[in-house]
Amino acid sequence: MEKLVEGELRNRTTVQEFILEGFPAVQHLGHVFFLVHFLAYLTSIMGNMLIITIIWADHRLHIPMYFFLSNFSFIECCLITTVIPKLLTIFLSGRQTISFAACFTQDFICLFLGATVFFLLSVLSLDRYLAICKPLHYPTIMNPRMCYLLVASCLALGFFFMVVPVAMLSQLTFCGPNVIPHFFCDFGPLTNLSCSDTRSIEILFFNLAFFILGSSLVITIIAYSNIVVTIMCLPSAKERQRAFSTCSSHLLVLSLMYISCVFIYVKPNQASRLDSNREAALVNTVVTPLLNPVIYTLRNKQVHQALRDALSRVKLQKYQRGSLL
């Protein structure tokens, strides 16, 4: 009997690859969804890269806020590039296979970059607080060295917070089934597929996600509460309107990201609401990156001026070349 059990255990194969299910209910509209998401992806990449280029090319935008925004845009580009190409393939061809190593690599990169984004949003909140509430101390505190240190800290925290739960999950047994009810390898669906006891990992991940989202939210609330009080004390209505306009865009992006991420990740049991997680994840991977360039900077007067100046320089160069010919 013992030999029979041992033989069965040896014959028990482990999962070598996973299958990303995508959105089977709308697969008959795959080509339409492919076109919509491809255009959204292309627009997001071009918008964010345009922001990065303008910020680094125009010396007037070499201030802490735009330095953080350029890093934010770059991370957004990396995050959606990790997810969207596979989603586009699913829309065209249906279910897609992904190797065990590639799946956990994708999961880690998404979580690492996602956590980094929330830490960066906290830094942006602090930056706006110092600029509006402590304008005299702002240049001294937010010097170039501090800006680089803050971005490096966000990346380091995102890495160390997410590497542990993903590494622990990858060491568990996956004996089947291997169909992931999602369009990318996310932590919750992978946990649900494991044959091992995942309670300790789920609790660890819940605590980490709660800390990342909770701390970022608390910092943002405290910062913007002080900002609102300071703005209300401004003597000029025009100054109040300009300050509120700058902060409202930040708060809109924060609201979209917090609501979707709390819905997906802040729950002790990762097996719950797996089906609805797909729709919520689209907000962070498609909708928010598409809106960020418009909300954060393209509606900003300084960026508008930088764009106009860049276009004027291009037209002038073309005119000069035409004159020489």
UniProtKB/TrEMBL annotation:
UniProt xrefs under CDD domains: 7tmA_OR6C-like
Residue intervals passing through the bilayer: 32-56, 68-92, 98-126, 147-168, 203-231, 243-266
Membrane topology reported for the UniProt record: Multi-pass membrane protein
PROSITE patterns: G_PROTEIN_RECEP_F1_2
GO CC aspect terms: plasma membrane
InterPro entries from the UniProt entry: GPCR_Rhodpsn, GPCR_Rhodpsn_7TM, Olfact_rcpt, Olfact_rcpt_6C-like
Domain of life: Eukaryota
Gene Ontology MF annotations: G protein-coupled receptor activity; olfactory receptor activity
UniProt keyword terms in alphabetical order: Cell membrane, G-protein coupled receptor, Glycoprotein, Membrane, Olfaction, Receptor, Sensory transduction, Transducer, Transmembrane, Transmembrane helix
Localization in the cell: Cell membrane
All residue ranges annotated as the G-protein coupled receptors family 1 profile domain in the record: 47-296
PANTHER family associated with the record: OLFACTORY RECEPTOR (PTHR26454), OLFACTORY RECEPTOR OLFR212-RELATED (PTHR26454:SF152)
Family: Belongs to the G-protein coupled receptor 1 family.
Descriptive protein name: Olfactory receptor 6C74-like
Encoding gene, per UniProt annotation: LOC101962589
